[in-house]
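Lab manual, section 2.4: Encoding a predicted structure.

Procedure: take the sequence of the chain (532 residues), apply the prediction step described in section 2.3, and record the output as C-alpha cells. A sample record is shown.
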Amino acid sequence: MKLSAQIVFMLLTCMSFSQGSTINWQNSIGGSGNDNLLSISPTTDGGYILGGHSRSGISGDKSEALMGTIDYWIVKTDAQGAVEWENALGGDDYEQFGRVFQLSDGGYFVAGESMSNISGDKTENRDGPPDTGDLWVLRLDSAGNVIWDSTLGGTNEEFFADAIQLPNGNIVLAGTSGSNSSADKSENSKGAYDFWIMELDSANGNIIWDETIGGSSNDFARSIDLDADGNIIIGGQSDSNISSDKTESSYGARDFWIVKIDDSGTTIWDKTIGGSGFEIFGSIEAILDDGFIIAGNSDSPISGLKDETCTGCDTNAVNRDIWVLKLDANGTIEWQNTLGTIEDEEFQVTAINTNDGGYLIGGSSESGVSGDKTDAGYNGTDFWLIKLDQNGQYIWDDAIGGTNYDDLWDMFELSNGNFILGGTSMSSLNGDKTENTNGLNDYWIMEYSSGGLAIEQAVNNLKIEVFPNPVENFVTIKGEEIINVQILDLAGNVLVNTASDQINLTSLDSGVYFVKVKNSSGGSMTKKFIKL
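Recorded output:
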C-alpha cells in the first residue's frame, strides 16, 4: 500500500499542528517604510530591547523623522511586547544596524556600521573613503538617550559582526576590516579582509586593545561569546589556507573558522571546519560543559569534516542547509547534524542551548514539507524552529509566519521554558499573524511556547533507529540492550507496551506516533514516526 502525496502532506502537517505550539503574544512594530529587526534581548525589568534599521519617517510606531538613507531604530518594550519608548539614531547617509543589549548599569550598548560623516547623532567623521562604512557604536542611558558615540575604523572599509560585555564592564567588539594600520587600527591587514577584535572602555568608547586576525585571503567575523574562563570565542568564515594566523588548510571554497583568544586578544587556538563546498557562518554560543554550539549554512556534500550531504544536493540548483555542530573546549567536533529541505536555506541561522540541555535552532525557510521540515508553513518565507536533544538528534520542528516573507533573526529562552522570537515580517493579518504591517516590513516579536507532548531526550547516550519510517505494518527498533518499547499517540497515551524490538502496527490508524525506548543501562529515547 502506498499513501498518496496529499495524505503524507496532511500527516506531516498534523505533526506540527498536533504538537500544540502557541504564540502567547505578538506585536508588529513599524512605520510606513521598511523596518528590519536584527536583534532582541531581555532587560532587567522583564521587558525587551529591540534593534534594527529603518527607512520609515514619522508614522505608525515611529516618532522621529528619517535622518539619512537608513537609520538605526531602537525600541524598548514591556514584558508583553508593548512599546515603551523608541529612538532613531543616524547621520545623513547610510547606517547598517548590528546589535543592541542592556549593560550592567541599566543603560544600552548599540553597534553597527555607518557611512555618515558628522551629522545627526554622529559626532565623528568616517575614516574610510566615500561609500564605505566604519563601525559606529553608541552608549545610551536607560531611557534611550545618547551618552556617547564613537566611530571606529581604518582607511578602507569595516563591517560589524557582534559585541558582548565583559565581567569588568567593558565591551568586546568584533568586526571585519579591510584596512591596514591607520586611524583606529593598530595592525596591517593579513589578507584582503580580516577579523578585527577590540576591547572598548564602556565609559567613553576608547579602544583599550585591538587585534587583527586573519589569513592571506578573506576572513569575516560573524559571532562572539565568552567561555567560563573569560576567554573570547569568535566564529566566522574564511577563504584562507594556512597563512598568518590560520593554522589549518581550507576544505572548500569557504569554511567556518573558529578562533579562541584570551582577554587581551592573544590567540589560544583556531579551528577550520568545512566540507568541499561553501559554508556561511551564523552563530556561536559557549555552553556549560565548556564546549560550544555553532550553526550556519552549508551546501557541501559528505566531504572534509562534514558527515552528511545536503538535502537536494543531487539537483543542479544551489541548495544550502543548516549545519549545526557541537564542539568541545578545544574546538574538536563532538557531533554534527545537517538540517534542510529541497529548497535553499540561505538565511540567518542561530543556535542556542536550552534549559533542558538540548538546543533550539532558528532560521527561515521558504520550503514546504520536505527533508527535515514537517510543517508546510505559509507562502514566502517563515520562521523555522528546530529542536534538538543534547546529542543533536531531531525532536520537532515548527514553521511560523504569514503569507508573505517573514524572517527570523534573533531569539532567546525565558526562565519558564518559552522563547522570545524576533524578526522581520512583510505579512498582513493572516496565518500566524494577528496584525497588519504598518509599512512594507515591520519588526515582528512574539513569546512562543512549543507546548504539546514533551519529547524525552536521549539519556545515557542511548541511540536508536526506527525503520522503516514511514511504516506500513511492522516497525523495527534497533538499539543496545533494549528492555522496553512503548508506542504513544500524539496525546501521550501508551498504545503498545512490549519488550520486543519488532512491533506489529496493523491495528493502528494512519497517523503520527512516537516510540519510547528504554535499555538495561537506564538509557531512554523517544522518536517520531509515521504509520501509513
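Check your result against the sample. The first helix runs from residue 5 to 18.
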